[in-house]
Amino acid sequence: MQPNAVTVDRQPIANAAKPRRIAALDFTKGLLVLFMVFYHWANYFIGSEWPYYRYLRFLTPSFIFITGFMVSHIYLSKYDVAAPQLLKRLVVRGLKLVGIFLVLNLGRDCLLPLLTKGKADFSLLQPQNLQAIFISGESTSKPVSFYILVPIALLLMLSGILMIPQRRFKYSFHTFCLFLFALLGALELAGVKNQNLEIISIGMLGVLAGFTRIETINGVVRHPFLLALAYLAYTIAIAIWNVPYPLEIVGTCLTVAIIYLLGTVDWKFSSTQDLVILLGKYSLFGYIAQIVILQILAAGFHRFVPKVAVLPTSFVAAFALTVMSIQLLDRARVRASSVNWAYKAVFN
């Protein structure tokens, strides 16, 4: 495998009339899905005290970064910036994600007595919990799942609104991104932390990156040794200082660049690459599916599987079932128009 062999057919430039998928971008999302399975598996089966979570801190901001990239690079190649459909598309998709987040968490609360010894609890809808989830992004008194859907939804809706000034001022996103980082700096001086604002700011960086032509991006990532050296320096830095916000930004950009580079290479085992690309096409569904699967596995394995076998069997099962769920969905969409319609209605 030669990392400097960038293949054009795996990363087509989006066509203005009908943008084609960028395979390397789908590969990036797919590999992030697999990293996310590992991260959530560690949460459920190792616990919050595991000392190596810092090395996975790039996960959530990477997904947000890619979402922002798609707003400018994909959506703006499909719609004119002045088209009202663009604003509607982004805002409606954001609202859908908020709805999915609420339905999934309330559904989990209904099933809680079946999965654990706990009782059904619907305090998610209490004002203080909603404020913590949708505004500050900080931990609440009510544990929630599927949190990544919230900043993605907020970024999409915010991007839709910013399309209005973008029609007359092409640096609207750039200006707003600078404003967000200035606001974060002011909050830092005041001793206030806002996790949603931090993640959305990284998403806005993704939007700015999406304005770049794909050839330029390929040229930037076509330096594997420099990327590897930079990532080594980043790893040493977080080992010493943990992951302060500036390093989180650096880690996000480096991780996305390195994975994207891997996605542009023609692999010897192309079936593996194609599978990762498939996972990327269904990254949002894969994120939801893995959490549902892991919650069920955690409830069952801790009860019925010998303790010595819990970690290895749950690890394999989490990855296998996540991949299988996506493959089944992909096949079902081809064979049943009703499944395809339902998928598009929920996720598109």
Concise structural overview:
The protein is mainly alpha-helical and 348 residues long. The chain has one domain. 74% of the residues lie in helices and 0% in strands.
pLDDT < 50 stretches: 1-17
Distance between the amino and carboxyl termini = 35 Å
Using only CA atoms, what is the Rg? 20 Å
N-to-C series of helices and strands: HHHHHHHHHHHHHH
| Number of separate structural domains | 1
Binned strand content:
under 5%
Number of helices: 14
Number of distinct beta strands: 0
- Largest β sheet strand count, sense and barrel closure: none
Based on CA inertia axes, which overall geometry fits?
globular
Helix-strand category: mainly alpha
Level of helix content?
A: over 70%
| Mean pLDDT metric | 88
Task: Describe the 3D structure.
The protein is 74% helix and 0% strand. The protein has one domain. The protein has 348 residues and is mainly alpha-helical.
